[in-house]
Amino acid sequence: MKLSQLQQAYANPNMRKFLDLIAQAEGVKHGYNTMFGNERFGNLSAHPNVRKAFKQTDGQTNYTTAAGRYQFLNSTWNNLAKRYGFRDFSPQAQDLGAIALIAGRGALDDVLKGNWQAAIQKTGKEWASLPSSTYKQGKRSWDFVNKHLGSNIQQQQQGYQPEFVPQNMMQRKQSYTPEFVPKEMLAQQQSYQPEYVPQHLLG
User: Among all residues, which ones are annotated catalytic?
Assistant: First the structure.
């Protein structure tokens, strides 16, 4: 992807919405100036490249250099900077770098079109905080995503699973099922039809 294409993608409101979601999922308290662990750093002339230890969800200790609004690893950022000519770690460069990672996961069109579920499924390998992530780190729920995107992804996802939707629809149908209503109608017919109506007509 060219730099101009990244800039064009940033102009799309869905892209900015998705970038906001990533930042919110990553829980960055200082925006573009956030180091892993929510420590603030002031100099945006370059990626801070500070290595920090953390415990994975399986209890193992790991290390990360994640920094910025989208928690770029230093190695990832260096590759992006080389490819697109980023000369600093400025907000604009970080935004465009994140879009490049989204595109690299094949999710660019999904984001631009607002296909949130597909976009999140594809980018879970890039951002550990997304609910589709397979990393041994804490991740957000689909409810969290829905709240921030104003969507209902979880139900859409379950909508393709026969275990959930048919049961829900069956529950709704139970109040209209033929076992209940026809019996009542039959009872009404039996109490009025044979004894009363024909006699009245004959009289």
Answer: 26
